[in-house]
Amino acid sequence: MKLLQVDFPFNGPFGEEMAAVLTGLAESINQEPGFVWKIWTESEQNKLGGGIYLFVDQASAERYLAMHTARLQQMGIDGIRGRIFDVNPTLTTVNHGPVA
Description:
- It contains three helices and four strands.
- The protein has helices at 15-29, 58-74, 89-94; strands at 2-9, 35-43, 48-55, 81-86.
């Protein structure tokens, strides 16, 4: 399992307005190869958007990060940060993390 962390400058919308605008995008992410789940992150105070994703392998996480970075850049967003991490399933399970 690989965890992908992405964040970028974002001026909104946030909260329920963001959900209303981006539900179609959220649904499309479910179709990405190797995708397991995503937690959407946002900070209206700090003007940041992003997410934490779980993928089945490194290749899937890398492929998604490249595609998502290009998509964000096409939307005029710069300063995109993406990092891929290994998951320690034993310790994550101790802390109730969703990585079956």
